[in-house]
Amino acid sequence: MSFFKLLIRNRLAFAGLIVMGLVLALVIATPILPLYEPNVTDTANRFLKPFEGGHILGTDHLGRDLLSRLLWGTQLSLAVGISAAVFAAFFGAAIGIVAGYFGGTTDNVIMRGVDMLMAFPYILLALAIVAALGPGLVNALIAVAAVNIPFFARNIRGVTVGIAHKEFVDAARLAGESHLKIILTEIVPNVIPVIVIAMSTTIGWMILETAGLSFLGLGSQPPQADLGSMLGEARSALITNPHTSVVPGVMILIIVMAINLLGDGVRDALDPRLRSGALTRPRPATLVEREGPVPAPVESGTLVLTDLQTQFRVGERVYKAVSHVSLHVAPGECLGVIGESGSGKSVTALSIMGLVASPPGVIVGGSAIYDGTELIGAPYSKLRSYRGDKVAYIFQDPLATLHPLYTVGDQLCEAIRVHHSVSKAEAWTRAVELLKQVRIPNAEGRAKVYPHEMSGGMRQRVGIAMALANDPDVIIADEPTTALDVTVQAQILALLNDLRRERGLSIIFITHDFGVVAQLCDRVAVMYAGRIVETGPTQEVLDDAAHPYTRRLIACVPELGEGRRELHAIPGLPPAVDRLPAGCAFAPRCDKAQTLCQVGVIELEGGASRKVRCLYPETDIAGMAKPVAQVPELKKGAGA
Ligand code: ADP
Ligand code: MG
């Protein structure tokens, strides 16, 4: 969504924008408006009330027209405040970028200087600067800009330090670019949003500071009006003629409020996380909005999914990430879920425990029954008591799921104590025991190290230990070995295999690798574009796949000792799930596709164990309706 649209959607920011627009229009039009001269005194008409003698806002203690002085004064205050903000932002950002980019001594020297400036109360510093330079509007501007430079420098330095060692900056360095070029092309574009945000939230403040200096008589000099000096001059008549103070006071209030509202809106709209809707606080459990009745489960097992449907609603678009997925897993069984990336495997897994972020995720139908309890739409307290205790997850990247600042032992203890009230010592003993179970050598010692001190394979073992912490019945492993090398992968797979045999665990193992499925899984479900296209016992599917997609996936697995064999990549890309074609989603990439493949809904058909969603399967499957004869007159691509 565009920046402007987002800004307008924020009602308060929009109000701020309109008010600021009006003020600016008035200020710009001031020279051509039919106003009195702002500085011409008329002592006969002192302190006229509003609307007396043709003065809309009345006159001040010297008989000068307040409206005229107000508009000219606003013009001056805005000009000074905004210029000060621009100066402060420019120099502050430059200092911050240099300090953050070069680091080391440069950083130290610069930032200690900035710290020294910050050690003074800013208003005292501003007063000292004006006292040294002499009163006057330009000097007030310099003072306000100077006292705000440290604020920008600190902010921008922090951001720059974060960027200066990112891979793309290193890449630019390796390409031999000069420091200046790197700063201008790699760093500056990344810090500009931060500068704009910092500016938009401080301009109001700087206008106030300038007004403050003028109020004290250190800014604009008589007879020139700005908002601060108008307030200062009206001070003595505050009780007798309050309108002289109220007029500039209200203007300051309006401007600062409008700028701050607008600034907050700009900040929110510029934040890329907010733009994708991520900053809206996600619900504790995925939103469930059923569009039909709860389907009755046909299968049985520890965990049974029936017709699960999960969508992402982003603006007008609806991404059908998971459509009518049914899966089940029995005690001690391992079910593989396989598919290309983006086929909806993770979303299926996360939907079970209501872990898909809402917004934008919504579960629109289906059932997930664990041990006789419906999980879809279950109260949050119920889901929470099951999460990690009955159904546990293992994720792909253990470094991202482990807390960097706690030892692995502490994190295991925490996982145990969430669900069981045991003492710290008991939890620690259990943690060490768990580490032993996942075959970590020297478990007592290893419990005391931090995640970054472990290798990838060891961290993943800790992830598994964490999943095992509360002796769950079901483990959902989402590509747990994708980031590991093959030897470690083999160890982890063997470990999971042992665990399920020892403990009767049910495992749902998500992967994109048929080789892994062949090693570990009893049954396999193949997903494509959010649907299951084939399911059956692993060996049967591997030996004689029925869906052309499954065949292509299997053909992509390289085999050692097979001699040279051509690996067949699948041409084309999976369809976008917000525009799924009618019929079979794989048809556009399938060389066996016929006209009928792109019409209507193709059901998952077959017997109790083997099922396929294909009109012209590669192999006959018991219990399937006969393939329909080709209807030649149907046009290719005709939707239903
Ligand atoms: P994978 O099979 O690789 O695990 P996922 O389950 O993560 O795939 O994703 C399934 C589909 O859901 C993808 O097409 C993805 O683009 C879509 N998706 C995932 N998260 C979001 C989101 N927050 N907003 C919109 N679409 C999403
Ligand atoms: Mg995934």
From TrEMBL:
Occurrences of domain ABC transmembrane type-1 (ranges): 74-263
GO cellular component: plasma membrane
Gene Ontology molecular function: ATP binding; ATP hydrolysis activity
SUPFAM superfamilies in alphabetical order: MetI-like, P-loop containing nucleoside triphosphate hydrolases
Pfam family, one: OppC_N
Start and end residues of each ABC transporter domain: 303-554
GO BP field: peptide transport; transmembrane transport
Protein topology in the membrane: Peripheral membrane protein; Multi-pass membrane protein
Membrane-crossing residue ranges in chain numbering: 12-36, 76-102, 122-147, 187-208, 245-263
Entry keywords, A to Z: ATP-binding, Cell membrane, Membrane, Nucleotide-binding, Transmembrane, Transmembrane helix, Transport
Cell location: Cell inner membrane; Cell membrane
Family: Belongs to the binding-protein-dependent transport system permease family. Belongs to the ABC transporter superfamily.
Protein name, entry field: Peptide ABC transporter permease
